[in-house]
Amino acid sequence: MKLHINATRMELLKLRKRLAIATRGHKLLNDKLEGLMREFLSMLKEYKGRRILVDRELPGIVKLFILAYVTSSKNRVIMALEQSKTAYKFTLKQRRILNVPIPYFSVPKDQSIGQKDSIHNLNNIIAYSFLDTNSELDNAITRLRDFFPNIIKLAEFEQSVRVVAKEIGKTRKRVNALEFSVIPRMKEDLKFIRNKLDEIERSNISRIMKIKDILGKG
Hints:
9% of the residues are buried. This protein is mainly α. Helix 1 (9-71) packs antiparallel against helix 4. A hairpin with a 2-residue loop joins strand 1 (91-97) and strand 2. The protein contains four helices and two strands; from the N terminus they run H-H-E-E-H-H.
């Protein structure tokens, strides 16, 4: 027995409006969920490709550093690394996908290694004397700086995938709550109110008929 529901026509109208809003909200959230899933699959594909690239190339660069370290003077390697330090500036910004803020890194073109308008030659990359180091270290430093933007983009897509996946989980919970709990409960309450109102109406009609019958006999 639904003691918490007022079986009145006013309550019936209110509940109908709430049901219409909940149904519309469910559709919008479901559309958002489908859109997020499409974006997620696209991001995931891009992320996997970049992850494969980094996993394939980065170990080779690390091996070059190790080889340079074991075939050259430790102090010379450390000095060369210190002299080849470069500030790599980028800004963390946001873009929105279906009103979900997605992080991305904005890198100025003049320092984005690998782009056409970048300063990209060995003299600008290496700031120490070649006479003090071996070719492995020179190659390792050059390759790492060339490859560094790929590591940044991998971090960007990894975080984006996490954000979208989290939003998908939240949206799916809200869709399921509306679809399997809120909307069915509202429909059940509407049915209960309608039945009560019909019962009251039948009772009133029966009472009126009895009164007419009594008056007719009088």
